[in-house]
Amino acid sequence: MNSTQRQGRPNVLLITVDQMRFDCLSIAGHPVVETPNLDELARSGVRFSRAYSATPTCVPARAAIFTGQSQRAHGRVGYQDCVPWNYKETLPGELAKAGYHTQCIGKMHVYPARNLLGFHNVMLHDGYLHHNRNNHGIPMQEHYDQVDDYLQWLRERVPGADMTDLGLDCNSSTVARPWHLAEMQHPTNWVVTQSIDFLRRRDPGKPFFLWMSFVRPHPPFDPPQAYLDLYEDADIPEPSVGDWAETEDPDLAGYSPITGRGLVPKRRLRKAMAAYYALITHIDHQIGRFLQSLNEYGELGNTVILFTSDHGELLGDHHLFRKSLPYEGSTRVPFIVSDPGNRLGLQSGTVSDHVVEMRDIMPSLLEAAGVPIPETVEGESIWRLASAGRDGGSKPDWRPHLHGEHAQGLQSNHWVTDGKEKYIWFSQTGKEQFFDLVEDPNELHNAIGDEDRQERIRYWRSVLIRELEGREEGYTDGHQLITGRKPVAVLSHIL
User: Fold this and answer.
1) Are residues 383 and 409 in the same domain?
2) Which residue range or ranges hold the Sulfatase N-terminal domain (predicted)?
3) Residue 221 near residue 113, CB atoms below 8 Å
4) Fewer CB within 10 A of the terminal residue: the chain, N end or C end?
């Protein structure tokens, strides 16, 4: 007898990857990327084609997943490490209180690093985090040697190994080389190996919540050679470059890992793109490995599955790289739900164009588990969007738009979108952009000056003003946007 037959509740499997673009699924029409296992999840489940990360870097995106809140409520509106996580209601915490056996394997990126945040156990690998490695004259409160489980595991097998052995920077999206050790020792394989072991050692009398949290395809771009070989000779399309992008580099400054922008030699960029796609296929195959084990344990049909990424990767679009900026490659993510046991009545094989976001994960998974949703949660459960029982196929009421942002010095930005149009405001310079995502999905033309767009631009500007009313930074007086107000990465109410 399996655990869910005893409890009458489904297991919950959350699979997240780090820095995967929305379009890197073969089922979504990507001309190169191969993702057979994720494609099958989408065919048997529902794929959300307009999923976003409202604050697209690791820390704030994960705050939204853990709390089900908007960035205004969870308080992390930019990237800042070493700010304690003191949230009372969290996704794993609510499931644990309801009798679930809760386990995270892989990346958490919380502080302190070993903060359980409601999990019964965490097998941790956050990747290379600067605050756990660098000592700039300030005594470190925690060091990677003390907090990273994968590194300890690796060093038992490869004495002296480190995460920097390949010489690749943890934030560079422009350089790549193949993984140098056995494939089974790659961090992607480690997450799945430990997850399969969890199936063996879990409490058999409880349903489980497992968060498989991969660090890749976040840099370093280090796929096993067999996966890199899949893309070495592929006809990889060049990145999209808008009419508004910087296209000259007279000082030969090249790519800046600090700003995430710059011109990169085509050969190097192509290699990086091939490695990025290879990491995604590697993850896909390892997800397939885990799903096979889940089936062997008799739990696949008793498990609700959600797959997504915390944010995207610009990967050279508009000569930009990494994340945090308001463009589709950075903010838009894959989002797939699957219910092999058909508990939720999903309209299998369909694609939803409703705008969903990281904050919707917590209420969705709690509802699937039959667990009450705390009042602190601002996201909404997505199951009614994916249900086969909608009356006459009519669209249910849903959020009319999403407000996204990221504090980042001169690049600090705010944006609003309904998945069809997008308005962007850079708070420090006052620069504005407007994109028609239906006619111009690659954001090639900034229509902010087009006469026929002015009514829509005024509308979206007013929407952003309403979203920013009352913010401590003073971005608006309720009538207009105010340029030059000092951005903060963390709002004062959580400090």
Assistant:
1) no
2) 10-371
3) no
4) N
Active-site pick, 74, 101, 109, 406: 109
Question: Alpha helices, DSSP H only, in 45-148?
Answer: 58-67, 71-74, 91-97, 144-147
Is 82 annotated as catalytic? no
Burial class of residue 180 in the structure, from the number of CB atoms within 10 Å of its CB (0-12 exposed, 13-18 middle, 19+ buried): middle
Q: Are strands 421-426 and 413-417 parallel, antiparallel or unpaired?
A: antiparallel
Task: Output the domain CATH number for residue 290.
Answer: 3.40.720.10
pTM of the model: 0.96
Cβ–Cβ < 8 Å for 461, 423 = yes
d(CA 164, CA 225): 18
Q: Which of these is catalytic: 24, 58, 101, 406? A: 58
**Residues 108-139: tens digit of each pLDDT:** 999 999 999 999 999 999 998 877 777 655 44
The Cα–Cα gap between 42 and 349 comes to: 6
348 plus 460 within the same structural domain: no
For residue 162, what are its two tokens? 């480190």
Of 165, 184, 180, 164, nearest to 282 by C-alpha is 184
In angstroms, the CA 387 to CA 382 distance is 9
CATH number of the domain bearing residue 456: 3.30.1120.10
Residue 227 contacts residue 28 (beta carbons within 8 Å): no
Q: How far is CA 303 from the centre of its chain?
A: 22
pLDDT confidence band for 391 (50 / 70 / 90)? very low
Split at pLDDT 50, 70, 90, the class of 49 is very high
Domain assignment of residue 87, given as a range: 3-393
Q: Is 24 a catalytic residue?
A: no
Last residue of one domain, picked from the residues 330, 362, 393: 393
pLDDT at 2: 62
In this prediction, residue 393 carries a pLDDT of 52
One-letter amino acid of 47:
R
Q: Is the peptide bond before 207 cis (omega within 30 degrees of 0)?
A: no
In the chain, the percentage of residues whose pLDDT exceeds 90 is 87
For 322, the token pair is 């990494």
Asked if residue 423 lies in contact with residue 457, where contact means CB atoms within 8 angstroms, the answer is yes
Quickly list H helices, 222-360: 225-232, 266-296, 328-331
Nearest to 72 by CA among 410, 474, 494: 494
The DSSP code for 435 is E
Half-sphere exposure of 430 (CA within 13 A, CB side): 5
- Which own/partner contact pairs does 474-478 have at CB distance under 8 Å and 24+ positions apart? 475/414, 475/427
Number of domains in the chain: 2
Express each pLDDT in 358-367 by its tens digit: 999 999 999 9
Query: Which residue has tokens 């952009």?
Result: 433
Which amino acid type is present at position 486?
A: K
Instruction: Answer for the pair 4, 302: CB distance below 8 angstroms, yes or no.
Output: yes
Domain boundary among 373, 393, 413: 393
Could you tell me if 382 and 359 are in contact, meaning their C-beta atoms sit under 8 angstroms apart?
no
Domain co-membership, 335 together with 446? no
